[in-house]
Amino acid sequence: MRKHWLLFSQTVTIALALLFIVHTLKPELLPNAARNGVVTFYESTPDTSAALPASMSLNGAAKKAMPAVVNIFTRTEIKAPSNPFRDDPRFKFFFEDQPEEPQSSSSLGSGVIVSADGYILTNHHVVEAADQIEVALADGRKSSAHVIGSDPETDLAVIKIDIPDALPAITFAQPDQAHIGDIVLAIGNPFGVGETVTMGIVSALKRDHLGLNTFENFIQTDAAINPGNSGGALVDATGNLIGISSAIYSPNGGSLGIGFAIPVSTAKKTMEQIIQHGSVTRGWIGAAVQELTPELVDSFKLGDANGVLVTDVIRNSPAEKAGIMTGDILLAIDGHAITDWSSMLETVANTPPNKVVSVETVHNNKKQTLQVKIGKRPLAK
To answer: Which among 6, 31, 65, 346 is least surrounded, fewest beta carbons within 10 Å?
Structure first.
């Protein structure tokens, strides 16, 4: 046995010595893997780290969407408070040579061209109270703009520029086509540095209860959104618009990977009403509600936690005229189940004014169906 082991050891030693000599003097005779000091039975693969396949680039999506994204510059005149002594006869002499000079503030944002004739969709807070609006196109052209209408409750606005040439309009994605994990691009004018593209994914959908708008249904993304991106485009990997960048979560004003965009379904519906009528018309019943908690369910001796609790009814409102009272439980409106405050608000808002709908409620532990004539929601101030 000892003799066999010595023979095996000598054979291995001679083989390794030969491999070392060949590796040193004639490396071209060895396979690629052996040259690198690794012996393998698998063929080596070419190094692809130097260049990514063209299919992995988002250049096409950016080129498609960027011409339709504009930079918006606004200026607002600020009335400076008058000095309290200016009109006093005893001190008027000191102010005669000091005329009151008007002050102004400027801000910036972004917008998206939605039609070839110059309609631009942006955020309400971008153009709110602006006295002058200037739009800079991606190709360098500039034009003054005027507000067609705005909707504070969704934070959307439509402005218009008058340029004789046809403008590059964004392509809208189909509603509700965004999915968690989809790659997205945010295009806008962060901090006024100029048109910029950032990439991320859809982090979440249908974000609400954020306290940003009355009607909330946000797309959450980790694509970098910073001040100046407001009103800009959030597009998918094919360059189609899926949302309007609106807000960020940031204690310090910079991007922390939590940005919010208004989905294209809400943006398109609001935009069309503003262009046609100058404002948005929504349904209203005049009842305030809150979601049911386990304690409220026990207190009202309800079998389950379906519906919402009516906490207030406005006098002479459609709800009061129909017989809805404080303490009632709203279960369904026009056949749509009411599960929380936002679903109740959205269902009523999407119902045309003057339409009579059935409302299912629980009053004194008894179910009942009432007929409510939907009113017109007062415009937000």
So the answer is: 6
CATH topology (fold) of 283-376? Pdz3 Domain (2.30.42)
The structure tokens 């218009």 sit at 160
* Interatomic CA distance for residues 216 and 209, integer angstroms: 7
**What superfamily would CATH give domain 70-161?**
Trypsin-like serine proteases (2.40.10.10)
Contacts of 71 (CB under 8 A, 6+ apart): 108, 109, 110, 111, 135, 136, 189, 192, 194, 195
φ and ψ at 269, to 5 degrees?
A: -65, -45
Token digits for 95? 């102010």
Q: pTM for this one?
A: 0.74
Q: In the chain, where are the structural domains located?
A: 70-161, 183-277, 283-376
pLDDT at 97 over 60: no
| 62-91 per-position pLDDT tens digit | 999 999 999 999 988 766 555 555 566 655
The separation between CA 31 and the C-alpha centre of its own chain, rounded to angstroms, equals 55
Gap between the Cα atoms of 330 and 82, Å rounded: 52
Q: Which of 111, 108, 102 is nearest to 150 (CA)?
A: 111
How far is Cα 322 from Cα 373, in angstroms, rounded to an integer?
8
- Give the model's confidence band at 34: pLDDT under 50 very low, under 70 low, under 90 confident, else very high: very low
Averaged pLDDT, 192-214: 88
Residues designated as active site: 125, 155, 230
* Overall size of the chain counted in residues: 381
What percent of the chain has pLDDT above 90? 50
Domains 70-161 and 183-277 in one fold: yes
Q: Identify whether the C-beta of residue 155 lies closer than 8 Å to the C-beta of residue 124.
A: yes
| Helix or strand holding residue 94 (H, E) | helix 92-95
